[in-house]
Amino acid sequence: MKKNIIFGSFLLLSIIIAFRLLYLVIDPANKDTASNNVMKYEVVYPARGLIFDRNGEIIVSNLISYDISVTPREMNAFDTTEFCQIFKISREVLTERLNDINKRRRQIGFRSVSLIKQASAEEHALFKEKQYKFTGFSSIPRTIRSYPRNLGGNLLGYISEVDSAFLRRNPEYRQGDYTGITGIEQSYEPFLKGRKGNSVFLRNVHNQIVSSYNNGANDLKAIPGKDLVSTIDANLQEFAERLMVNKVGSIIAIEPQTGEILCMVSSPGIHVNQLANINKHFVSLATDPFKPMFNRAVMSSYPPGSVFKVVNGLIALQEGVITPETRFGCSLGYHAGGLTVGCHTHSSPTDLVQSIQMSCNAYYCNTFRAILDSRKYNRAGDALSAWGNHVRSFGLGQKLGSDFPSEQTGTIPTTSYYDRIYRSRWGSLTVISLSIGQGEIGATPLQLANLAAIIANRGYYITPHIIREIKDTIVDRSAYTQRHYTSIDPIHFEPVVEGMYLAVNGGGGSTARWSRLSKIELCGKTGTAENPHGNKRDHSVFICFAPRENPKIAIAVYVENAGFGATWAAPIASLVTEKYLTGTNSRTDLLNWILNGNLQNNVLRP
Asked: Domain span at residue 141?
């Protein structure tokens, strides 16, 4: 009996040991540990895709940089002073990084971890000369962004190393990878990033690399990212940015027939030399009172001001409450009981064309009331709902669906909004400010440029977009070729176009006469938008397109706290138009006026 117990115990122990040995063999974690002991995997990073302008000029390219990595298990004592001199870092920084690595030494094992990011070619050359002094250290080539011209910082965007939050959302990335954070770099990250590769090396018993593993059969080749052809005209972009120096606001130009964005300026913006090393400049950019990282072109929702009058005019025509010949008087504004909406001096009465030419507030107060008080609706709320449907057909109050990130919706007030505020006791006079693009209306400069494109096209738009082609890739781009028609009959656009033409090219009372061009039929509408924040100056606004027939460019200019639309926004738009269509500027008076203008203090002044 005793022998049987001893034999059984021995058999049981043997079975347990056998199962434990089998587990150690098949456990993936142990396989990985063994593999790491004899093999070294070195990541091969792909070149990021290039970005071209519409004419084939490279506007984003790559330079070689190097990450310096260390394998803690292989690292010996080294001259830290010499190491710091090579890479221009302080001893404190190096000590902090090494201490962090030492804390994770067991976790890291025989893997390599990055110690220095984006070392220059010069630093790398010095390191290679003296690498024998730094056992366990190696270098991995990577690409960093390079910018042949100083343009488009905000629209191009920047890349940065992924953080833990990003890794949780995107498990296909690994620590040390880079991704696009803003602009085109963000929107087209899946195409630009390429695919990482790796090289596998064999170690000997002394943990030294002796050869490529399996003659390179297990290596994975890195695949470069796809090149992009943008819709941007680099020369126009650079010129438009010059015009906005010392000003706060934005310029957007669109090719009406295609929806292609020709330039997108947010000022003040990020300089491309800051993009290349965003971590170095991030704090100063983030704390700048002018918010250069904030892309006003797509993220700011402003009151459109008088440029919105063309929308109300078109809706009134469609609703049948006015005709182009309908005339309203103006006595320095619109007066109803104790309410007055002021206006500037001009001839009176005006018809629709003249009301656009002279930007008459009284005309649009009457027009808007005619829409909301129309007998075809039971109450003003029902009429406002119909009005809102018309407005949204222009792409206002919603995202346009551009391929550019962070696009905002703007705001178009609804009947339920006013019912909630006024408990359903309100009428056309309550919301009269909507007649001239004030009150609760908000629009982004991109939406205003799209509005100009709609009028240029006499009633439709193609979703604005900033990439024309992804090279060597077939992608469904139908969203950027379809026409989106407004709810307005195309026939109603002709008197509006005539009014915009006369606003620039007409006689006395034309609001944008100073910005006319001798050889280009520029059609535009000025706006002076009240600033809803504090007692600062009004915003200067202008939308336009040219030429009148078969338009090639539509523009919106918004300059914060700059006063009248005719004074700043209209000349800027005129200069951009002429530059694009002719390649030069004949109006040196306008050019000098804009280049010498400094309006930034108007924004910060209380």
From this structure: 63-145
